[in-house]
Write a structure and sequence with these properties.
3 domains, 6-stranded antiparallel β-sheet, 3-stranded antiparallel β-sheet
């Protein structure tokens, strides 16, 4: 019981950090010091943490959660060393298998006397359960509840812990990220395209159910031992308007853009309204990587203004133009002739990737 006031204090501090950070990031660098002086009101802890986020941001796109992880602040707020409970509801927690800025994922086992089954249990981290985060978490749970598809990880159960933190239980997927699966199995072009077509069908199903994923990337597509891809992590997905229009509801605070830059569309980078074309663009980037072992652009370490110019203005090269021997080796295609692979990509596959990666979707 004694830890409850501390947890409430953590939540209040998180909310204040988020508020001040968003205010500061909208200002030119020369005006930030005066703003922080006024907004923090002499609270040196608050100011230091906001400044660490701004330093971690350093002009690069990201979310507060991503920046917290990069700057180390998340550990202070989210009880980094917090032991996880032995049980939640009908589930016995076995080990932590993943941790994001806002939630932890555990391998768990249903153990209620009826049957035993390994599952993945996702739980909001202690101290980070603010209203905005809880709303996003519950929305993810609701999205998954209506996406019943063989290539989308299924929602099995959900509820709240004794201290009020929501959780949900999903199908546990044992597999490799799709690019790593292709590399390790040294898949042929036809096999890579068949995997990609299956992923496209799962994304199309989500679109038919008025949901855009917004974070399609290799690590969110695991391929099982028998070769079945599973689309994961609808944590930043958004619901399309119920009248069928192609723009998403704005459900995040000003300045909060949750994305992975290497797989983000121009409209995501610019903070504009999103549509199903956003996922199509990310699928184009995924196809590019599966075909070439690399990405259209070299974004590592770029400041935001250069990243924005590349993604939003610079036409993407065709896959056949980005091929190198080292990239083919990294993609598990070391035995393939570079010239022969270029010939196979030239034509329809180059055209399909280029259409998906258009800057202004039709």
């Amino acid at each position: 019981m004694g830890e409850a006031p501390a947890l409430e204090s953590d939540r209040r501090l998180w909310e204040r950090i988020e508020e001040v950070f968003h205010g500061a990031e909208e200002l030119p660098a020369e005006r930030r010091a005066a703003y922080l002086e006024e907004a923090c009101g002499g609270d040196e802890v608050l100011r230091a943490r906001v400044e660490s986020l701004l330093a971690a941001d350093d002009g690069k796109i990201g979310s507060v959660a991503q920046l917290l992880e990069r700057s180390g602040t998340a550990g202070d707020l989210g009880s980094e060393e917090e032991p996880f409970p032995e049980r939640i509801g009908s589930y016995r927690l076995l080990r932590e298998v993943g941790r994001g800025g806002l939630a932890s994922v555990f391998l768990a086992e249903r153990d209620d006397g009826t049957f035993r089954k390994h599952v993945a249990l996702k739980l909001v981290r202690r101290g980070l359960d603010t209203r905005d985060i809880l709303d996003r978490f519950r929305q993810e749970r609701q999205i998954l509840a209506r996406l019943d598809h063989p290539n989308i990880a299924r929602l099995l159960d959900g509820g709240s812990t004794e201290d009020g933190r929501p959780y949900f239980v999903m199908e546990h997927v044992e597999g490799l990220p799709i690019d790593e699966f292709c590399r390790q199995r040294q898949l042929s072009l036809e096999e890579r395209l068949e995997l990609f077509r299956t992923v496209c069908a799962a994304v199309h199903f989500a679109h038919q159910n008025l949901t855009i994923h917004r974070d399609i990337k290799p690590s969110n597509i695991l391929v099982t031992e028998d070769g079945a891809p599973k689309l994961l992590d609808f944590g930043i997905a958004r619901v399309l308007e119920s009248d069928g229009s192609q723009t998403t509801r704005q459900m995040t605070g000003p300045g909060l853009r949750l994305l992975t830059p290497a797989y983000a569309s121009p409209e995501q980078i610019r903070g504009e309204a999103l549509s199903t074309a956003t996922d199509v663009y990310s699928l184009g980037l995924l196809l590019f990587r599966l075909l070439t072992g690399t990405s259209p652009y070299d974004l590592e370490g770029l400041p935001f203004h250069r990243l924005e110019k590349l993604i939003c203005e610079t036409p993407a090269p065709r896959p056949s133009q980005r091929l190198t021997v080292s990239a083919l080796v990294a993609a598990g295609l070391g035995d393939v002739s570079l010239k022969r692979w270029q010939t196979r990509l030239t034509g329809d596959l180059d055209t399909i990737a280029s259409m998906a990666l258009r800057k202004e979707p039709e």
